[in-house]
Specification:
Blueprint lengths: L1 H20 L3 H16 L1 H8 L5 H12 L5 H12 L6 H15 L2 E8 L5 H15 L2 E8 L7 E5 L2 E4 L2 H14 L1
Parallel strand pairs: 1-2
Antiparallel strand pairs: 1-3, 3-4
Helix pairs in contact: 1-2, 1-6, 2-4, 2-6, 4-5
Length: 179
């Protein structure tokens, strides 16, 4: 979906610049989250995909559904997207905005999927190690996937570190079949 990302980038950059200039990153982050979550709802998705409604009507209805989650600037943003037939970019715009925000705030959200529940000591040690590697404030979200057999998979931005037993076995199988 590189094309969606490319098309969404100017919108995400524009909203980020506005939010940064107005010192309202948290507010825009919240509004974009509300918009993206609302637009992902199946009935709202059908509404936005409907060829029977004009873009401006779709934006108005979406803003109406979002209610107090949007201020006037959020509504104008939706209208601008609708005017350019870009309401389908809402999710990608939110993702890129959050990436820009994380870069600005020198923070990084890390997802750790492990075979077993991580202890607080392990989580803190990983946090310190990743903090040194990326030179950013790290926030760790963990979840358990017993299918990994052992080890963990760490996703930090664009970086994926697969230290799982399942991943190592897959790599071994790939190496053996290549011989």
């Amino acid at each position: 979906m590189a094309e969606l990302a490319t098309i969404a980038r100017p919108y995400a950059n524009a909203v980020f610049s506005l939010a940064k200039r107005e010192v309202s990153l948290n507010m825009w982050s919240s509004m974009l989250s509300v918009i993206a979550a609302t637009s992902d709802h199946p009935s709202v998705s059908m509404l936005l995909a409907s060829p029977d409604l004009a873009g401006s009507a779709k934006a108005f209805r979406l803003a109406e559904i979002c209610g107090d989650g949007l201020d006037d600037r959020g509504k104008k943003f939706l209208q601008a997207l609708a005017d350019n037939d870009r309401l389908d970019l809402l999710g990608e715009i939110r993702v890129q905005f959050e990436d820009l925000r994380a870069e600005e705030e020198k923070s990084l959200d890390v997802e750790v999927v492990s075979a077993y529940e991580m202890s607080d000591v392990q989580s803190e040690a990983l946090k310190v190690s990743l903090n040194q590697k990326f030179e950013k404030e790290i926030t760790i979200e963990t979840r358990v996937d017993a299918n990994l057999i052992g080890g963990a998979v760490i996703r930090a931005g664009d970086v994926v570190i697969d230290g799982s037993v399942r991943g190592k076995l897959a790599k071994l199988a790939e190496t053996l079949t290549a011989i």
